[in-house]
Amino acid sequence: MVRRQAVGIRDLARELGMSISTVSRAMNARPDVSPETQRLVRETAERLGYTPNQSGRSLRQGTTDTVALVMPTHTARTESGETFFLNVSDGLQEVLSPRGLNLVILPCGSAEQPDEFLFKAVDRHLADAIVLADTQRVDRRIDYLIEKKVPFVGLGRTEAGGYSWLDLDFEGVAAQSVDRLVGLGHRRIALGTTDRTVNNTFLFLDSYRASLERHGIGYDPELVIRVPDTRQGGYHLAARLLAAPHRPTAVILEQETLAIGLYRALADAGLTPGRDLAVIGFRENPVLDLLTPSLTCFRVSLTNYGRRLGHLVLAEMARAGSAGPLTQEVWPMELVSGDSDGAPLG
Questions:
Q1: Which of 95, 187, 227, 232 shows its CA 20 to 30 Å from the CA of 323?
Q2: pLDDT of residue 317
Q3: Which has more confidence, 244 or 9?
Q4: What is d(CA 262, CA 341) in angstroms, rounded to the nearest whole number?
Q5: Long-range residue pairs from 237-243, CB within 8 A, at least 24 positions apart, any chain
Q6: Residue 195: CB partners within 8 Å, gap ≥ 6?
């Protein structure tokens, strides 16, 4: 196959009978070039298949035309069926790409310090804007981005305000889960949560505790079990639940990656989710469709979530550190009933 030769700015200028400088100024919508000339240059460029040298333009303007998603690698979670960031990235890129922006992933390895990783990325000017994942309750990275006046959106909340963020409704999921289980007759309801310090863990725990107390059920810290949010973590979670002197009759999972291991451990013990232990998972995930019985969990379109995140990024880039309004949104999740959360035995 013969490869089509790229059309350069000299070819475009020759076709139009204009100087290269005039064509360049027209492509960059400079005010000293008339709208009619700008339109003619754009139409001719499209007809010839000319695209500007983006690296040269970025160098002149001091920009990268890049948005970076800063996220942890989470290798064990990915191996456990985690698809969160892939789906969010799809929606994010769908919004950014038509604006001439490229999405890059900056994965922070497990051996690296998240703070220092972010600081280096900002100091090297790797991107024009940042999407910051895995926000902590107190997060130095947020303070650094604000100090450096870098446009950014938090993929999650922190205790501090003063920046735009988008987050899933962890509190709503915890409250609905407790309400559903109490309605089925459960009183000893455990919580399987991650052993990491991300803020959503605290949000979920606070709502779980408040929801129990709203139903007149005392909070028991022994029923809150922290494990790695992986399949193996789910297996260990089940083992600890089954070994408890006063075994809980239900468990809520704060991460969907725990479900596979928990189901496996129950099967190894000759027990069935929904009959011997009521289970409510967090997010619906195609990997979990193979579980039997079907898992009661919560649905969210991560592609739409990513699209909304993209619009927030564009708004922050347009705001560019000015005193304009911030956007802080909690994204709702829909309960999907399965067969894993029946009434307690006896």
A1: 95
A2: 92
A3: 244
A4: 14
A5: 237/192, 237/261, 237/262, 237/265, 238/262, 238/264, 238/265, 238/266, 238/269, 238/277, 239/265, 241/190, 241/277, 242/269, 242/271
A6: 226, 227, 228, 229, 233
CATH number of 66-168+302-333: 3.40.50.2300
pTM: 0.80
Cα distance between residue 76 and residue 86, in whole Å: 15
Q: What torsion do the CA atoms of 276, 279, 284, 290 make, to the nearest 10 degrees?
A: -20
At the top level of CATH, the class of 1-42 is mainly alpha
Quick: pLDDT tens for 94-114. Answer: 999 988 899 999 999 888 899
CATH of 170-300, one of 3.30.365.10, 3.40.50.2300, 3.40.309.10, 3.40.50.720: 3.40.50.2300
**Angle, nearest 10°, between helix axes 20-27 and 9-16?**
100
